[in-house]
Amino acid sequence: MTNKRSEQIAAHRPRYQDELAHGLDRFFDPERATCPWCTSARLRRRLRTTNHPQRKPGNFVLDQCRNCGHVFQNPRLSADGLDFYYRDCYDGLGEATMARMAASPLAVKLYRARARALLPFGRPARWLDVGTGHGHFCAEARRIHPRTEFHGLDWGEGVEIGVRNGRIARAYRGSFAGLAGQLTSQYDVVSMYHYLEHTLAPRQELAAAHTALRRGGHLLIEVPDPQSAAARLLGRWWGPWLQPQHLHLIPLDNLCGALTEQGFTVVAIDRREPHIPTDLTSAAVNVLNCVLPGEDLPWLPRKPGPVSRWVRRLALLAAAPALLVLFGMDILLAPLTRRTRLSNAYRVIARRD
Questions:
Q1: In what side-by-side order are the strands of the sheet with 170-173?
Q2: What is the DSSP secondary-structure string of 95-142?
Q3: Which parts of the chain span the membrane according to its record (predicted)?
């Protein structure tokens, strides 16, 4: 397996190096002077950071609107930038890692909690999961809703893998806003779990959900909470910043207002259960990724030498007990964290009127 991965990395390196030789400027749109949510010019710099998970080159800035609190990437990734930074993250070289994470006990617990959140609002016949990845949520949600037919939509090839593995009955690959016209009034439920923050125009995604839903259908959204106290305490190391993939981090009041504007009625809000108990662990991993020698990756100009590889291995072995302790603390503190402003995510359920 190691040799196969090394061969894949070597095969990918020429393309990445050719792209990087042309510089990073084309990966970004022009910097904005106003908030993309409310158009206010009262902006402040929230943080500057790097691509911690993949270690692809580049610096990324998040600005915050002093008027409405919206946090957004500025300058934002261009179409070329989105292609470059998403490539080999959820599919390709990153597919196996993401599949392991999606099938972990913690992820399964989160999936089932999300599916149970709909139980007070009926039993849907057809459910579209937008940003479904490989469809792992749908496979677990079927245990809670056994009579529901689950469909998935995403940009990457993972949605097709979800069909092949029997996790979803039908796959749509592409833009939700672009495909919504084909899906008019077909669904009882549309879910967007940690999807909206990745999109170029969140309001267009809400409009697409309104189109795809039947009257009385429900939209389920979970997103990172930029108002979380953990975001302030952990700064640039807070995992849910996830740069450069998270383009918009939306305060709860802003999202509820936008849903009302689009013709929804908010019927449930939850800032407790959606909390993902990994803040300390993910912050520590981000620090390690920043300070340790890099692993062999095709966007690095060359394969690390033997000294760098051994330093990385030994450092990871030394850090493993501390990471386990931090993960244990995340889990043990979760019941308390969920009841405070340290909770790192929120859920909104809205009915299409």
A1: 170-173, 149-154, 126-130, 187-193, 213-224, 345-352, 264-270
A2: HHHHHHHHTSHHHHHHHHHHHHTTGGG---SEEEEET-TTSHHHHHHH
A3: 310-333
Angle between helical axes of 252-261 and 202-212 (0-180°, round to 10): 50
* Burial of 106 per CB tally in 10 Å (0-12, 13-18, 19+): middle
CA distance 238 to 276: 12
How far is 52 from 245, CA to CA, in rounded Å? 11
Q: Which fold has domain 1-276+345-353?
A: Rossmann fold (3.40.50)
The per-residue pLDDT for range 251-295, each reduced to its tens digit, is 999 999 999 999 999 999 999 999 999 999 999 999 999 999 888
**pLDDT interval class at 38 (50, 70, 90):** very high
Nearest to 225 by CA among 299, 276, 186, 167: 276
Contacts of 237 (CB under 8 A, 6+ apart): 52, 283, 286, 287
Q: Assign residue 268 a region: left if phi > 0, alpha if psi is -120 to 50, beta otherwise? A: beta
Can you tell me which residue has the tokens 């390690």? 288
* Unique residue bearing structure tokens 């609190």: 69
Domain ranges, ordered by start, for the chain = 1-276+345-353
In which residue are the tokens 């779990």 written? 193
User: Hey, which residues does 172 pair with through a beta bridge?
Assistant: 153
**Whole-angstrom Cα distance, residue 275 to residue 347?**
9
The reported pTM is 0.94
CA distance 56 to 38: 31
Confidence of residue 165 (pLDDT cuts 50, 70, 90): very high
